[in-house]
Amino acid sequence: KVRVMDFGGTVLMIKVRDRFGRKTDVVCGYDSLSDYLEAGGYLGALIGRWGNRIGGARFSLEGKTYPLYKNDGNNHLHGGKVGFSHRIWNAEAIDGEEPRLVLTLVSPDGEEGYPGTLTVKVTYTVTKENGLSIHYEATTDKTTVLNLTNHTYFNLGGYASGKVFGQTLWMDADRYLPTDAELIPTGEIASVAGTPFDFRKEN
User: Fold this and answer.
1) Rounded CA gap, 69 and 76, in Å?
2) Which site from 9, 98, 150, 155 is most exposed, i.e. has the minimal number of CB atoms within 10 Å?
3) Tell me, what DSSP letter sits at residue 75?
């Protein structure tokens, strides 16, 4: 069972069964829209036009430099002052063997400093395999940059079950992107060996 709101395309709840068949909500978040508005942040939301940071709040494309809104020190974070996480998305529920929620949003040319009118479609699907799929599509009328993502936090023991230190994680990734003091990727692609990011074996 999944609950999503049109504000930010935010995932509010994902209820799953544990090994004993008990249903629990594994998404960390709040209980009301006012909580999301007052707390700030990006819990559960769709992120755009750019997920993560853009160093110096500017980028160059086809010989032109585009200044962006600075909302993380000297940098641009998660789409700027009012990113996709804080917009109202158009929502259409589609029933069927794999129920879907289709969210659409139009970001006009120049919004937050980005070139091109961008039309975004994000589809949440509850799959036949009892999973949740998120599919992103976008079209633009100018060359632009784009990095869409979702910002949901999970506690697989249930959102109210306490700390996650007893849970284990396996991730089939042998490299990661180191960052500088402002969390901007340095450009290096480093091995996870000997770092806290090594989850090639469940731990």
Assistant:
1) 6
2) 98
3) B
